User: Which sequence fits this backbone?
């Protein structure tokens, strides 16, 4: 498409920034705060945008403000255009992690926050003290919409693919280990299959289901285990295991860490359980953003310290 330079010259391109904030926040007040403007100024920008685009963009509903159909179709193109422009004006040779000031919102699972988080925070404090982290629980149901809405900068988890405008990079692989209190159970590692099934288990289940990867593996050999408890909070599981004659199966690096911390014992799982890959996902319009690219490489560096590199 040929660029209409004359037509664009008569448009205040700052309106594009205001439009993105309005589409994201769906509130004049919050949009104004997002870009550092007065509410009256943002209201004026909304009026100008309505006249320019010939659409109301935001309409009042009982819950507040809602996007019109035209506005909903503008969300992704507007955000993509701003990101590309940002990548052009933020020259890579001007990027210095020691002086950058930025907040990165990263969505990841609780177990990954325990394994990635400390290493990531330590590295940032040493190499980029002006970067602040906002860590969020990874919700797979809303992951792609959250990425598209610029609510999160990247996600780390069991992610296989996204849409055409998303990028996915494999990071590493994890396996599983048994974790138990050897004194309470009266057994030692390695645990036999009979002992593994003789004691009840604790299962971490965010969704509330009572079936996990171990149950799938046991079903293949015609066996099953007994559950003593389920919990959505994996960090409580080692404390349950320490205090009761039960065992659990968890991600290998966490099992090792908790064993050292609480005096517990680890053992290979006596039934074949497939390991799993962890990947990073982000919006492709951030590809050329120097700070975002640097942060992605940091995540790759951290992943190499926590597990086997994904092949």
Assistant:
């Amino acid at each position: 498409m040929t660029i209409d330079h004359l037509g664009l010259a008569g448009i205040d391109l700052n309106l594009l920034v205001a439009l993105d904030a309005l589409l994201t926040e769906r509130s004049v007040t919050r949009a104004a705060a997002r870009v550092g403007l007065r509410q009256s100024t943002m209201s004026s920008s909304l009026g100008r945008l309505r006249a320019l685009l010939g659409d109301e963009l935001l309409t009042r509903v009982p819950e507040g403000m809602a996007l019109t159909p035209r506005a909903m179709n503008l969300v992704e193109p507007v955000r993509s255009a701003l990101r590309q422009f940002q990548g052009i004006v933020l020259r890579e040779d001007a990027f210095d992690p020691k002086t950058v000031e930025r907040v990165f919102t990263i969505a990841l699972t609780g177990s990954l926050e325990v394994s990635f988080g400390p290493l990531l925070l330590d590295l940032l404090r040493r190499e980029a003290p002006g970067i602040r982290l906002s860590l969020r629980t990874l919700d797979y149901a809303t992951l792609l919409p959250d990425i598209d809405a610029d609510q999160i900068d990247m996600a780390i988890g069991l992610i296989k693919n996204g849409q055409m405008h998303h990028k996915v990079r494999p990071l590493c692989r994890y396996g599983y280990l048994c974790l138990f209190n050897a004194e309470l159970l009266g057994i030692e590692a390695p645990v036999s299959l009979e002992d593994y099934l003789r004691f009840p288990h604790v299962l971490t289940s965010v969704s509330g289901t009572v079936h996990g990867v171990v149950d799938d593996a046991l079903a293949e050999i015609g066996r099953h285990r007994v559950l003593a408890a389920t919990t959505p909070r994996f960090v409580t599981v080692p404390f349950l295991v320490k205090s009761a004659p039960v065992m659990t199966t968890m991600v290998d690096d966490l099992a090792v860490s908790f064993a050292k911390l609480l005096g517990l014992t680890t053992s290979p799982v006596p039934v074949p359980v497939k390991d799993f890959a962890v990947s990073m996902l982000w919006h492709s319009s951030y590809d050329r953003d120097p700070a975002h690219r640097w942060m992605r490489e940091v995540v790759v560096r951290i992943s190499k310290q926590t597990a086997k590199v994904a092949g």
Q: What stands out?
A: The chain has a mean pLDDT of 87. Residues 69-89 form the longest helix (21 residues).
